[in-house]
Here is the input.
Amino acid sequence: DLGRFTLAIDGPAGAGKSTIAKCLAQNLRCTYIDTGAMYRTVGLFCIQNNIDYTNEDAVNSVLSQIGIDIIYEDNAQKIYLNGVDVSTAIRTQEVAAAASKVATYKEVREALVDMQRKLAATKSVVMDGRDIGTVVLPQATLKIFLTASAEERANRRLLEYEAKGMEVAYDVLLKEIQERDDQDANREVSPLKKADDGIEIDTTSLSIEEIIERIAHLLQERL
Ligand code: CDP
Ligand code: CDP
Here is the structure.
């Protein structure tokens, strides 16, 4: 038993955050919290209800209508929007783009950060996102910043789509990743960046197992 700990994993799209955070949470027998899913759910709500998500005031004015619940079924995180399971519906490129846009809005971030802190208040968690080490859990036991070249990350996404039998052009994926990187890193509120006391791991030429081992070892050292 390691005692209570919080592990923050940040980084750009396709760096391997969710894959690695999920495995670590399973190995360490603690809760995995996917914060990107929450921004995606706000994006999905806007798309479904014809709210212009590029308009900050329009999004702020519907925030109180967006009920998000995080539920754990068989150890997997399920996310509900006003009572409906949207865990699969949020995994589209269109929703990712909307999520990245609404994630630039201060009121959206404040509401979601508050939820995220409450979820982590009493138990051991592995939480992944963009601002976990810098804003959500500044006292985290360990902060990891995962990176990989944009080309490598686009290629990983391509392989994921191919595995699902879907045809997507590599150039389109690369452009989408670069646009989201740019928006996430250059926004005013909580931009994507490594915490001063975070540890950066370039995953470009590391296997998932190697990264998991490295992080588990670092966490053990901290505890
Ligand atoms: O959560 P995030 O967007 O950071 O990335 P992910 O969805 O966990 O990973 C994107 C894809 O890259 C997944 O298909 C992983 O299996 C793969 N991956 C990899 O091939 N090698 C790594 N070292 C890390 C992730
Ligand atoms: O899986 P992927 O890495 O592609 O994205 P995600 O983690 O599901 O996050 C979707 C979008 O939400 C990101 O592009 C960010 O703009 C935003 N996000 C954020 O701003 N802060 C977080 N803690 C998590 C996600």
